[in-house]
Design goal:
The structure is a single chain. This protein is α/β, with parallel strands linked by helices. It has one domain (about 1-229): Spore Coat Polysaccharide Biosynthesis Protein SpsA, Chain A (Alpha-Beta Complex), CATH 3.90.550.10. The chain has helices spanning about 30-40, 70-80, 110-125, 170-175, 180-185, 190-195, 215-229, and strands spanning about 1-5, 25, 30, 45-50, 65, 100-105, 130-135, 140-145, 150, 160-170, 200-205. It has a seven-stranded mixed sheet with strand order 5-4-1-6-10-7-11, sandwiched between helices. A hairpin with a 5-residue loop joins strand 8 and strand 9. Helix 4 (about 170-175) crosses helix 6. The longest helix is centred in the middle third of the chain and has 14 residues, at about 110-125. The structure holds cytidine-5'-monophosphate (C5P). Cytidine-5'-monophosphate binds near residues 8, 9, 69, 104 and 213.
């Protein structure tokens, strides 16, 4: 069995919406509901904890927790809450080997199959973490602040990292126990595992599992969801 942490506490300023991004309406429903559907459809998921902005309540059947200042702080709060009993669902076991799924509410196109593939890859690889990732299709160059190109990277070895990311509870818990300043620099939790010398694997995921950041992403996500119906 596994627990799932859905981080939904971001402000989403780049989207230009009046409220938090996870509650912006996408194809008729709040953004986070699409990810919740996918998580609920995975048999192995026995508990879902949602990190929320101040003043928002947990969706039915989920445990809610107030998010932190930065994304990884929200993940840390949700991981702690996954161990607390709330009388609504089974409390966490604290089993160090238990898989913990971390997913951004900002990726509403995730499917149950993608989550299951990440869970299976964690078992097969024996890694500390498995991250969903799409092969990079653009040519990627590193440039100096002046704009002068320094180098062109070999894209055959490059992956664009997404969520879901799946961790052994012990590895995620140790990674998130690091100082707040380090957590604030993490754009994903797997980076914290890498910093601590842990092993992280990628599992291939489609580019369609996009992150809603700007209004264009929201329009694209709506079109892709329409195609699914
Ligand atoms: O800001 P960004 O799009 O990178 O955020 C990724 C995910 O992390 C979003 O689902 C957002 O709600 C969540 N987040 C959070 N707490 C924060 C910042 C972001 O839960 N302090």
């Amino acid at each position: 069995m596994a627990v799932a942490l859905l981080v939904a506490a971001g402000r989403g300023e780049r989207l230009g919406a009046t409220g938090p991004k996870a509650f912006v309406v996408l194809a008729g429903r709040p953004l986070l509901e699409w990810s919740l559907d996918a998580l609920r459809a995975v048999d192995a998921v026995r508990r879902i904890v949602v990190a929320l902005p101040e003043g928002y309540y947990a969706p039915p059947g989920c445990v809610g927790v107030r998010g932190g200042v930065e994304r990884s702080h929200s993940v840390r709060a949700a991981l702690a809450a996954s161990l607390e009993g709330d009388g609504d669902g089974e409390a966490g076991t604290g089993d160090p080997d238990e898989p913990v799924i971390v997913h951004d509410a900002a990726r509403p196109l995730v499917t149950p199959a993608q989550i299951e593939r990440a869970l299976a890859a964690l078992e097969e690889s024996g890694a500390d973490a498995v991250v969903a990732a799409a092969p990079v299709t653009d040519t990627i160059k590193r440039a100096r602040p002046s704009g002068e190109v320094e180098t062109t990277l070999d894209r055959r070895a490059l992956w664009a990292i997404q969520t879901p990311q799946v961790f052994r509870r012990s590895a995620l818990s140790a990674a998130l126990a690091q100082p707040d300043e380090l957590l604030a620099r993490a754009t994903d939790d797997a980076w914290l595992i890498e910093q601590a010398g842990g092993r992280v694997h990628v599992v291939e995921s489609p580019r369609e599992n996009l992150k809603v950041t700007t209004p264009v992403d929201l329009r694209l996500a709506a079109l892709l969801l329409e195609d699914r119906c």
